[in-house]
Prior knowledge:
Layout: H1 22-41, E1 45-50, E2 62-65, E3 68-78, E4 85-91, E5 104-108, E6 111-113, E7 116-118, H2 122-125, E8 128-132, E9 142-146, E10 158-165, E11 176-179, E12 182-193, E13 198-206, E14 218-221, E15 225-230, E16 233-238, H3 241-246, E17 249-252, E18 268-272, H4 275-281, E19 286-293, E20 305-308, E21 311-318, H5 328-334, E22 337-344, H6 354-366, E23 369-377, E24 382-389, H7 397-413, E25 417-418, H8 424-441, H9 444-476, H10 479-501, H11 507-535
Amino acid sequence: MTEAELVQADVSPIKQWSPIWVVPIVAILIGLWMLYNHFQQQGAMLLLVAENAEGIVAGKTQIKNRNVDVGQVVSVELSEDLSQVMIKARMKPNVTPLLNEASQFWVVKPQIGRGGVTGLNTLMSGSYIELQPGDATRVVLTHPLLNTPPVASADAPGVRVKLQTSDAGGLTIGDPVLYRGYEVGTVESSEFELSTRSTHYQLYIKQPFDVLVTENVRFWLSSGLSIDLSAEGLSVDVGSAATLLSGGVSFDVLDGWPVGAAAENGTEFQLFPDKQSIQDGMYYQFVEYLVFFDESVRGLKAGAPVEFRGVRVGTVTSVPFFFAMKKPFEVSLNQGVPVLLRIEAGRLYENLTLAQLGNELSQAVSRGLHAVLKTGNLLTGALYVDLDINSELLADSRQQALYNEQLLLSRQAGYPSLPSARSGFSNIEQKVLMALDKINNLQLEEFLTQGQQTLAATEQMLASSEQLLATLQQFVSQPELQQLPSELQQSLTDLRQALAGVSPGSTAYERAGMNLQMMDQVLRELQPVLKMLNQQSNALLINASDNADPQPRKAQQ
């Protein structure tokens, strides 16, 4: 075909609308409607913040409420600072009211806890996120992902209280809350606060036991088995079966206290280590004294009782107490080991002021009040401080001089002082030691040497005694000595016969009596002659004149 034959076609615009455009327009409209419907049926985008993403898979892990799917995880990413895991989940539109500020989320997976084994159904289906809605009205789309499931829902009937303690190892989440041994609640959460260095717990007490929580209740740790060996003796406290495994917390109103008004949600209480410490904490008014003990304080610990004749009046605070002393060792050598104790006013009687207590103690010291260490438990050797009054100590000059030095030192430390005395056992021990020292100072070597010499002389004497006994035995065995008893017996017989001849009734006895009578008569006859010779010695040669008998004189007128 030539160029002449090539004819250029005329192009003219179409002036009429073609029906073919209906198909793409309808397709576009359907697509827009489907896109709108897709976004319209999608719920809110939920953001969960977790420490780790264990068991969570994007596009697979479901979010459930009461075992019904209400959403799905769409992405799992690290935060910008790489310290947390950001989990995004698309929720269904009809569950948006459940996403309020009180809602809670946690991962359900197989776990073994105090209540048994849970989450076994996730072994086949995989872990999922459980949603527990709260009772708030404001919708919040960012929530933390809890590591453990909550004990009770936020809208569960009951009361929630907080506990504060300096001991961080007492309770764990899930431990029971007991009232007189009956389980009425659970420990919900635990948090350590760095600023105050204390631990805060949140307890949930379910209905109808929430009315038991009043403003005057006290909480204390309840271990399964508690054995206390102290100066007051042996104390064994056995808890319930639940506390034997994991421990727990107990609460009650102390004896003699009013019940008080019901506690509100969020009320904070102090958590005590045991029930006995609650009683000790009641005595917050006290007077502190410094005591110097001139003996061993081994076995005396802080918290030991201070008693007055068997009645507890205080508590030992510090053993030993060297806080304000520059040379503690020198103080211990000269004055004794310082011990700080307190006399508690509430233990004596009610409405006793500290001024009255100090005045009464000062008067008691002036009458001989003193402190003595005594053994409270022979098994453990625990000691306690016993107060007693002994006026004899006031007369001991050495004791008073020592107390004056202790008083000066205690005033420098900023505390009043109480005198002390040794206990009975210490005195016995001291006397025994003194006796042992005297025995140790004896010259035992010289004593043993003399004893050996004495034993040698005794041996020689025994040998001589044996020879003497042998000689005596030979002498006794002689025939002449054997005949001596018979001869002595014959001599005694002859002597008895001779005595029988002069005995009363015998002839010789009667003759001797007659001779004595005749001699008496002769002596009577000789009496006048002797009298005359006494008056006139020559009367035997010259006749004696008869003298007139003496006449009594007449009385003078």
